[in-house]
């Protein structure tokens, strides 16, 4: 159906009206680039070529010559160059563990870590199933206080999902006296913060907060974990010695015989940031016994009780 313009001239639907439901695609956008790539005849070959990146948002592009060399003689069996490959590069995933940097690689690492921790608790993937009977604990190691920060505390949860908690929180820092800090800032906060409140983790007073020691904590938290585990293993060795459990002779990788304590700690841990920016650790720690072959055995119930 045609419409008449003023003056008696008829016209059809405008071009803008015809394309009103069509989304424009441009080559310089991500959608446009994907659309242009999908229309190429070698699309499926390119898709197989980039499969190693596995959806990585920041893939590493490798360029150069690939040589296949015979190990015994050093003779070059095959030579290829990335110029003959799609995009003249080989793609590999960045492998970053942070979801804010690369969600795909972080998700892959999360699934791999789950399988490793699961094997450490029930066996599998080269770990004997007898570890399921070993004593194990799940511990959380947090940083000390560096100053008062805004928090959200819920004493009684009525929600079904803690990650999306919408329960009514208690007052942040409620006090009867409305005192001030040495810098004249309020030392109290009666707000009931929501889960996504931007002030969570921020100090009530920036000048009172010990930023320097928090930086030192974050820097040396890995070494502190190493020293903590070392101290725990030394304590277990002393307990075993007091109870008359002899040390065990094991064969090292270099072929030497070494005496070691009869028990050891095996662990898997992850490091995370609190809302205040301090590093803390979640750790699964398992107690293993050691026999002459250097493999795991379950500690007897009365060994270290």
Structural features, described:
This protein is an alpha+beta fold. It has 3 domains: 22-92, no CATH class; 134-142 and 211-297, no CATH class; 149-209, no CATH class. It has helices spanning 15-18, 30-38, 43-49, 103-122, 211-242; strands spanning 3-4, 10-11, 60-62, 65-69, 76-81, 90-92, 136-141, 248-251, 257-260, 263-273, 279-290, 296-297. Strands 7, 10, 11 and 12 form a 4-stranded antiparallel β-sheet that branches. Strands 1-2 form a two-stranded antiparallel ribbon. A two-stranded antiparallel sheet has the order 3-6. The model is unreliable at 1-20 and 301-305 (pLDDT under 50). This is Plasmid replication initiator protein.
Quick one: how many beta strands? Answer: 12
Biggest sheet overview: 4 strands, antiparallel
Distance between the termini: 92 Å
| Strand proportion | 15-25%
Number of helices: 5
InterPro entries: RepSA
Pfam families: RepSA
Protein name: Plasmid replication initiator protein
List keywords for this structure.
305 residues, alpha+beta, four-stranded antiparallel sheet, disordered N terminus, disordered C terminus
